Amino acid sequence: MSRHIPEWVIETQGLKRTYRLGMTQVQALRGVDMRVAPGEFVALMGPSGSGKSTLMHLLGCLDTPTAGNYRLEGQDVSGLSGDQRARIRNRRIGFVFQTFNLLPRLNALDNVALPLLFQGSVDDVRQRAAEALARVALDGRIGHRPAELSGGERQRVAIARALVAEPAIVLADEPTGNLDSVTGAEIMRLLAALSAEGRTLLVVTHDAQVAAHAGRVVHLRDGQIVEGGQRDGGQA
User: Fold this and answer.
1) Can you tell me the distance from the alpha carbon of 164 to that of 133, in angstroms, rounded to the nearest whole number?
2) Would you state the pLDDT for residue 236?
3) Model confidence over 35-91: pLDDT tens digits?
4) 167-212: per-residue pLDDT in tens?
5) Among candidates 234, 212, 216, which has minimal Cα distance to 225?
6) In this structure, are residues 204 and 198 in contact, taking their beta carbons and an 8 Å threshold?
7) Which of 54, 128, 228, 235 has its CA 20 to 30 A from that of 116?
8) So where are the chain's domains?
9) Measuring CA to CA, which residue among 184, 178, 201, 173 is closest to residue 52?
């Protein structure tokens, strides 16, 4: 039976996040309306303090909003418990971080296999991890630990790990931030190729050259979307 494809992978309405710092309340997000369709490649940009990291944490189910709604593949995840959000993260969201976040004692294959192991009842874990590494052209490096890999290779391992569970969306936070310009361009070409295959991607970046690979750029300022909230370029 084929899996139902929702109209929107990501849909937020009036998303707000307020933090308390001592006696002060900081409004990190001030009502974000945003939609991302299946297969879209979206870049999220904004100056420091614009709210892009807060928004990514909410979209990645790492945090919950103060107000508003967030639907992931049609499911309202705004008010889920910590355990429920952890299950969503493990099964439906892939993460790629600036600092790679690989476990140094594990080789590439075992690092990629971790999301499947956390699911608990997945068949052919090592085969699926090897296939994910092959997708990022690292099938010849599966036995190498992170210290034996270049920065670009480490990020490819991180991308393979993000893809191995076939998530609804891959969230990448400054994926080229720790790489030189040539290696960073290679990583972005890889992400663009994955997008061309139908993978839904959202990349947080401050780099216009990175954002240029995306099909749409969403700009945030002062906790609000000021441009690109939906595919026609207007506010969602």
Assistant:
1) 9
2) 44
3) 999 999 999 999 988 999 999 999 999 999 999 999 999 999 998 999 999 999 999
4) 999 999 999 999 999 999 999 999 999 999 999 999 999 899 999 9
5) 234
6) no
7) 54
8) 10-101+157-227
9) 173
Looking at residue 1, what is its pLDDT? 41
Pairing of strands 10-21, 24-36: antiparallel
Per-residue pLDDT of 109-141, as tens digits, reads 999 999 998 887 667 999 999 999 999 999 999
Return d(Cα 4, Cα 1) in angstroms, integer: 9
Q: Using alpha carbons only, give the angle 128, 185, 200 rounded to the nearest 5 degrees.
A: 50
Please state, rounded to an integer, the average pLDDT across all residues of the chain: 90
Biggest distance spanned by C-alpha atoms of the chain: 55
HSE value, Cβ hemisphere, 13 Å, CA-based, for 217: 12
Global pTM reads 0.88
CB 99 within 8 A of CB 175: no
Pairs from 152-157 (Cβ < 8 Å, separation ≥ 24): 152/179, 152/183, 152/186, 152/187, 154/100, 154/102, 155/96, 155/100, 155/179, 155/183, 155/187, 156/187, 156/190, 157/100, 157/102, 157/108, 157/111, 157/112, 157/133
How many CB atoms neighbour CB 181 within 10 A? 10
Classified by CATH at the fold level, domain 10-101+157-227 comes out as Rossmann fold (3.40.50)
